[in-house]
Specification:
- This protein is mostly helical and 326 residues long.
- Helices cover 68% and strands 0% of the residues.
- Helix 5 packs antiparallel against helix 6.
């Protein structure tokens, strides 16, 4: 029975028969079988998983076709251009968001999910399952593409059955040799900053909030623009799951630990830390300067700075006195 209906009925009375029948009908419509109950619990992280999987299948698929077709032993002529490459990644992101936006919000990116948890009150329990779903989806998507292009990859590698970073770069990001570590971090930081900042803007009801059906179009334009402007140096992962999921896949299919040890564990401080820091700073800047909603801790009353103990700790007293004197 619906909880609101149950609470409205005095404890010493039984619910009317028509109310009971109606509640049962609603319940059965929502949960016609046991699988429906299970699906209700996993629906949102599953949407993130499937959306990310579609994103990676199309994105790493164009990586493979674009790079492998440049080898005359694989294809008689190249198939693709750098513009087409970026357009396809934009399409991949848009389609991934389209799959999941109506269910989970269409994050398909741990940097976005982390920003929503910190600044938009997304429950941390959900955030963890979303990120796990994104990683699994990215791993599955990369595995599908590797299986499809495995013969072409073998030719590309010289028909020796070895797997090197030459083809590992088709799935994960590896910066150009001349790019310094600090520049790599900043490249990922600024790309993720732009991505999350625009996502916050289009989801802000007081700014330019769009109907969910238009969000994939914005994501297409956004990823296309970031790729065209910042794609050269690091491959613009701007998404920890987009890089880590395929990287785990390559390690499992024969590339070994070299995919993790490259450039002093670049995968940690570049695509993961750089992207997450860029996303968090984007959320902070947007909320400090533009957002007025109560969801953000930036807009909550200063009394919430209290640590809950009497007397307040020195830090709380300082923060409260600062806010009071402003």
């Amino acid at each position: 029975m619906d909880e609101a209906v149950r609470c409205a009925i005095p404890k010493d009375q039984s619910p009317p028969a028509d109310v009971f029948i109606e509640s049962q009908a609603v319940y059965l419509a929502r949960y016609p079988n046991k699988w429906a109950k299970i699906r209700e619990k996993i629906r949102e992280p599953a949407a993130e998983m499937l959306g990310t999987m579609i994103f990676i299948i199309i994105g790493t698929g164009v990586n493979c076709q674009f790079a492998l077709s440049a080898d005359v032993d694989v294809s008689p002529f190249p198939k693709g251009s750098y513009l087409g490459f970026n357009v396809t990644w934009g399409c991949a992101a848009a389609l991934g968001v389209w799959v999941s936006v109506g269910v989970s919000g269409g994050h398909i990116n741990p940097a976005v999910t982390l920003g929503m948890a910190v600044f938009r009150r997304l429950p941390w329990s959900k955030a963890v399952t979303y990120i796990l779903g994104q990683l699994i989806g990215a791993w599955l998507g990369a595995l599908v593409v590797f299986a499809n292009y495995s013969e072409a990859i073998n030719i590309f590698e010289g028909r020796n059955g070895q797997h090197t970073l030459k083809s590992a770069g088709l799935f994960s990001t590896y910066p150009l040799a001349y790019v310094s570590s600090a520049n790599c971090f900043f490249d990922e930081f600024i790309g993720a900053f732009i991505l999350v900042f625009v996502v916050f803007a289009v989801s802000d009801r007081s700014n330019s909030a769009l109907h969910p059906s238009f969000i994939p179009l914005v994501v297409f334009i956004l990823v296309l623009g970031i790729g065209a402007a910042f794609g050269m140096q690091t491959g613009y992962a701007i998404n920890p799951a987009r890089d880590l999921g395929p990287r785990i896949m390559t390690a499992m299919v024969g590339y070994g630990t070299q995919v993790f040890t490259f450039r002093h564990h670049y995968w940690i401080w570049g695509p993961i830390i750089g992207s997450c820091c860029g996303g968090l700073v984007a959320g902070l800047v947007y909320d400090l300067l533009i957002f007025r909603g109560p969801e953000s801790f930036i807009n909550r009353p200063c009394v919430l700075l209290s640590c809950g103990h009497q007397p307040f700790c020195a830090v709380c007293r300082f923060l409260l006195s600062t806010c009071t004197n402003v």
